[in-house]
C-alpha cells in the first residue's frame, strides 16, 4: 500500500511539474509575442493581422436586419448603405453574421403578441429568402458549429439567427420549438421594456419592475430553450432576471452584445458580479461595439457637439426626429424603420461636416472597444469573451463602423499581443463552444424523456 501511495505521489508531482512547465512556456511565448509586436513595423503588423484574419473564423453575434433589404430588387448581394451585407462582409473578411429577429416591446395583450409574432415571422422569412432564393451560392444558414465550419470552408458566408426579445412567444411556449426549427439558436427574453417573460434592464431608470426577475411563463420558456438547444441571451434583461436565468438554466448562457460596466456605466453592460456569474456558468460575453456602451464620456462629449450640427440639419430638412428610446418605442414598426433610414442619412451628413472641423471631440474607436475585451479577459478569462457589433441596430465605432472594416479589430488585437489561438477563440471559438455545450445539454434532456 505504501509503495502504491508513493508511486501515486511521485506521479502527481510529475504531472504538477509538467503542467507548471507548460504554463511557464506558454507565459514566455505570450510575452515574446507581445514584445514582437512592439518592435514590428506597422506594415508587418498589418500583414500578420491579415494572415490571421484569413485563417480564423470571424463571427459577429448581433446584426439587425430590415426586411425591406431582402427583396428581389433590393437585397444583401448589393453594397447597400446599411452596415452588413455580402459585399461588405467579403471586403472586411466577416465570415459569420447572426441576423436578428428583433421585435420592439409593446402591450402585453393578445393583440400585441399577434402583431409581434407576425413581425418575427417576416424576419425569419427574409433570412430564409436570402439563403435559399436570393444568394444560396454566396451564403448559407448554419444551425450548428459543424455547419459553420463546413460552410466557411466552401468559401461561402454563413448566416445564423438570433431572436432579440422573446415577446413574439406570446403565451404559447410551443413557439420556442417553432422558432428553433426555423433556425434560431439564441433568444433574449426581453428588450427595452419588460416583457411577459422577464424584466428588462430599462427598469433601472425608474426602479419599476413587473416580475422582479423572470416570470412563471419565462421559467417555462427557459426550460423549453434548454430542451431544444437554444442559447439564452442575457444582454437586455435586468440583473435579477439574469440571476434567475443562470440559476434556472441547465446549460451555459450568453450575452450576445454587452460590454463591461466597470469601464462604461450603462445598464446594458454587465457589472463585475454579473461577469462572475457568467464565468461560473461557463458562458460567454460578446463584447459589443456600441459607442455609448463602450465609452460614455467620449461619446457624450462628441454627441453634444454633433447634436448642434444634427439639429440644424434636421431643421433644414424638415424631417421627424426622435431623441429617446421612449419615443422610439412609441412608434409603429413601419415608423421605426422609416426613422432609422432617415437617421442614417442625417448622421452621414453630420459626419461629413464633422470632418471639416478642427479639434472636434474624439470618437469612440476600436482601441476603446478592445479595452473592454482586455478587461473582460482579465476578469473572467479568455474562454468567456467574444465579439459583436450590433450593426444596423445602433452599433458601430470609429474603425469598425460596418462589416467592411472588420479587419481593424484583428489588427488591434494583434497590436496588443494576442496570439492567433487567442484571436480565434475571441472571434468564434468561445461562442461556438457554448453552442455545442447547449446542444449537448438538449440531447441529454430529450433522452430523459
- The count of DSSP E runs of length 2 or more, i.e. the number of strands, is 9
Terminus-to-terminus distance: 45 Å
Enter the CATH topology name of the largest domain: TIM Barrel
How many separate helices?
16
Second-tier CATH architecture of the largest domain = Alpha-Beta Barrel
Helix content: 40-55%
Low-confidence stretches: 1-12, 18-26
Q: What spatial form do the alpha-carbon principal axes imply?
A: globular
Structural class: alpha/beta
Total of domains: 2
What's the rounded overall pLDDT mean? Answer: 92
* H/E element sequence: HHEHEHEHEHEHEHEHEHHHHHEHH
Radius of gyration: 23 Å
Text of the CATH class of the largest domain? Alpha Beta
What profile does the largest beta sheet have?
Answer: 6 strands, parallel
Give an overview of the whole structure:
The chain has 449 residues and is an alpha/beta fold. The protein folds into 2 domains: 43-295 and 364-448, TIM Barrel (Alpha-Beta Barrel), CATH 3.20.20; 297-362. The protein has 16 helices and 9 strands. It has helices spanning 2-39, 42-55, 86-92, 110-134, 145-153, 174-181, 216-228, 239-248, 272-281, 291-294, 296-317, 325-329, 333-354, 366-380, 407-415, 420-448; strands at 59-64, 96-102, 139-141, 157-164, 184-188, 231-233, 254-255, 284-288, 385-388. The strands form 2 sheets. Strands 1, 2, 3, 4, 5 and 6 form a 6-stranded parallel β-sheet that branches. Strand 5 (184-188), helix 7 and strand 6 form a beta-alpha-beta unit. Mean pLDDT is 92; it is low at 1-12 and 18-26.
Amino acid at each position: 500500500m505504501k509503495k502504491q501511495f508513493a508511486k501515486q505521489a511521485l506521479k502527481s508531482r510529475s504531472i504538477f511539474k509538467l503542467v507548471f512547465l507548460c504554463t511557464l512556456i506558454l507565459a514566455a511565448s505570450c510575452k515574446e509575442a507581445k514584445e514582437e509586436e512592439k518592435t514590428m513595423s506597422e506594415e508587418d503588423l498589418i500583414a500578420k493581422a491579415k494572415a490571421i484574419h484569413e485563417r480564423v473564423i470571424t463571427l459577429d453575434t448581433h446584426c439587425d436586419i430590415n426586411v425591406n433589404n431582402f427583396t428581389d430588387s433590393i437585397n444583401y448581394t448589393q453594397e447597400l448603405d446599411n452596415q452588413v451585407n455580402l459585399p461588405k462582409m467579403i471586403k472586411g473578411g466577416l465570415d459569420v453574421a447572426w441576423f436578428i429577429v428583433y421585435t420592439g416591446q409593446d402591450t402585453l395583450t393578445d393583440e400585441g403578441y399577434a402583431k409581434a409574432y407576425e413581425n418575427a415571422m417576416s424576419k425569419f422569412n427574409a433570412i430564409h429568402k436570402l439563403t435559399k432564393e436570393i444568394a444560396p451560392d454566396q451564403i448559407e444558414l448554419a444551425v450548428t458549429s459543424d455547419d459553420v465550419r463546413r460552410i466557411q470552408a466552401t468559401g461561402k458566408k454563413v448566416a445564423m439567427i438570433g431572436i432579440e426579445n422573446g415577446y413574439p412567444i406570446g403565451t404559447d411556449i410551443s413557439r420556442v420549438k417553432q422558432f428553433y426549427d426555423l433556425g434560431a439558436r439564441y433568444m433574449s427574453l426581453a428588450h427595452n421594456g419588460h416583457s411577459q417573460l422577464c424584466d428588462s434592464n430599462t427598469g433601472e431608470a425608474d426602479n419599476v419592475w413587473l416580475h422582479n426577475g423572470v416570470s412563471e411563463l419565462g421559467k417555462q420558456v427557459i426550460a423549453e430553450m434548454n430542451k431544444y438547444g437554444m442559447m439564452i441571451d442575457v444582454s437586455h434583461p435586468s440583473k435579477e432576471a439574469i440571476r434567475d436565468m443562470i440559476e434556472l438554466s441547465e446549460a451555459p448562457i450568453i450575452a450576445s452584445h454587452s460590454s463591461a460596466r466597470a469601464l462604461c456605466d450603462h445598464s446594458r453592460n454587465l457589472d463585475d458580479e454579473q461577469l462572475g456569474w457568467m464565468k461560473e456558468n461557463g458562458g460567454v460575453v460578446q463584447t459589443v461595439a456600441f459607442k455609448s456602451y463602450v465609452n460614455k464620456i467620449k461619446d457624450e462629449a462628441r454627441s453634444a457637439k454633433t447634436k448642434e450640427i444634427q439639429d440644424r440639419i434636421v431643421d433644414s430638412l424638415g424631417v421627424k426626429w426622435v431623441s429617446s428610446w421612449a419615443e422610439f418605442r412609441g412608434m409603429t414598426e413601419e415608423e421605426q424603420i422609416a426613422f432609422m433610414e432617415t437617421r442614417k442619412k442625417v448622421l452621414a451628413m453630420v459626419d461629413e461636416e464633422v470632418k471639416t472641423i478642427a479639434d472636434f471631440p474624439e470618437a469612440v474607436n476600436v482601441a476603446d472597444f478592445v479595452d473592454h475585451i482586455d478587461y473582460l479577459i482579465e476578469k473572467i478569462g479568455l474562454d468567456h469573451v467574444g465579439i459583436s457589433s450590433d450593426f444596423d441596430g445602433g452599433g458601430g465605432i470609429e474603425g469598425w463602423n460596418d462589416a467592411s472594416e472588420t479587419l481593424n479589430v484583428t489588427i488591434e488585437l494583434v497590436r496588443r499581443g494576442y496570439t492567433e489561438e487567442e484571436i480565434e477563440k475571441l472571434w468564434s471559438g468561445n461562442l461556438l463552444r457554448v453552442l455545442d455545450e447547449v446542444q449537448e445539454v438538449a440531447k441529454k434532456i430529450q433522452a430523459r424523456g
